[in-house]
């Protein structure tokens, strides 16, 4: 059984034919050209799909994109980085252009669906996915289905507040999870600590241009034994731990799957998080608790989009 997965971003449109057992069979990428507007983008998606559907028998299309997606997985509202998009029934638009049934989903939920079908999430019936990328997103899987809430917008895990006196991020208030663990915001936090330690190797390397400092630089330095890098990642991991406690206490889901570029710090991030959980989570919730890393990498969006098609149309 095969489906087409589409990952719509502000820069590129990625599409792939995905087999439900073998994974990605064929993949293509084309520039989004977002400034040319909604219809242009939808036509480009259809053209990209058209080349793929000629070669395979396809059951449906799944598409991941930024923005809030309706509960019926057809309509997106005000997606960022896509000028001219307000409220768009993108599923219907794609179906009309391709002749293939389509469903859409928020890109963070797509990552959770990808893990459910092709990653470590296959081992769990229910789990919470936390994506630590440029921002912080998430998806909630309950009984092997994505949890959408009453209007379809559940799972904005990055906007949960853990310190209302904390730093700003893309949220409307201070101190959200994203303000500590989103890539840009973690780098900002790291810059503040590094400038207070001018004798550290990280200061010597980045003091001329801290804009170049990325979380992977902290991870590499930590692996080399840099104590300041280890401390920065540990403090970030502690905040991740407090966020996880909130999620588990609220949802009673004990399996946590973490993905995204920041998560490549691995146990430099995860062990401090687990330590906070051990110390502060309510005792009954600790039973069966697991925090695991998802390593599907750049393929997760396409696999998740195809997984959405499998769930919707198989």
UniProtKB/TrEMBL annotation:
<dbReference type="InterPro" id="IPR043129">
    <property type="entry name" value="ATPase_NBD"/>
</dbReference>
<dbReference type="InterPro" id="IPR000600">
    <property type="entry name" value="ROK"/>
</dbReference>
<dbReference type="InterPro" id="IPR049874">
    <property type="entry name" value="ROK_cs"/>
</dbReference>
<protein>
    <submittedName>
        <fullName>ROK family protein</fullName>
    </submittedName>
</protein>
<comment type="similarity">
    <text>Belongs to the ROK (NagC/XylR) family.</text>
</comment>
<dbReference type="Pfam" id="PF00480">
    <property type="entry name" value="ROK"/>
</dbReference>
């Amino acid at each position: 059984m095969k489906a087409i997965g589409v990952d719509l971003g502000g820069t590129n449109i990625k599409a792939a034919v995905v087999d439900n057992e073998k994974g990605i069979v064929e993949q293509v990428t084309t520039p989004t050209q977002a400034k040319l507007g909604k219809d242009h983008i939808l036509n480009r998606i259809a053209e990209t799909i058209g080349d793929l559907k000629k070669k395979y028998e396809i059951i449906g299309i799944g598409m991941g994109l930024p923005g809030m997606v309706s509960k019926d997985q057809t309509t997106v509202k005000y997606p960022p980085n896509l000028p001219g998009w307000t409220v768009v029934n993108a599923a219907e638009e794609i179906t009309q252009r391709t002749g293939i049934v389509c469903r859409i989903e928020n890109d963070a939920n797509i990552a959770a669906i990808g893990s459910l079908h092709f990653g470590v999430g296959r081992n769990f019936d229910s789990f919470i996915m936390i994506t630590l990328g440029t921002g912080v997103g998430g998806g909630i899987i309950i009984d092997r289905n994505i949890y959408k809430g009453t209007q379809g917008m559940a799972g904005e895990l990055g906007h949960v507040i853990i310190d209302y006196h904390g730093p700003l991020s893309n949220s409307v208030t201070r101190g959200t999870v994203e303000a500590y663990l989103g890539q840009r915001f973690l780098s900002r936090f790291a810059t503040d600590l590094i400038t207070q330690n001018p004798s550290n190797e990280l200061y010597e390397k980045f003091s001329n241009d801290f804009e170049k400092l990325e979380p992977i630089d902290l991870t590499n330095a930590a692996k080399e034994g840099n104590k300041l890098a280890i401390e920065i990642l540990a403090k970030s991991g502690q905040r991740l731990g407090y966020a996880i406690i909130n999620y588990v206490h609220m949802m009673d889901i004990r399996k946590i799957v973490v993905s995204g570029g920041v998560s490549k710090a691995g146990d430099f991030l995860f062990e401090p998080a687990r330590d906070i959980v051990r110390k502060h989570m309510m005792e009954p919730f600790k039973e069966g608790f697991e925090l695991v890393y998802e390593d599907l990498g750049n393929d997760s969006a396409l696999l998740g989009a195809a997984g959405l098609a499998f769930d919707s149309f198989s």
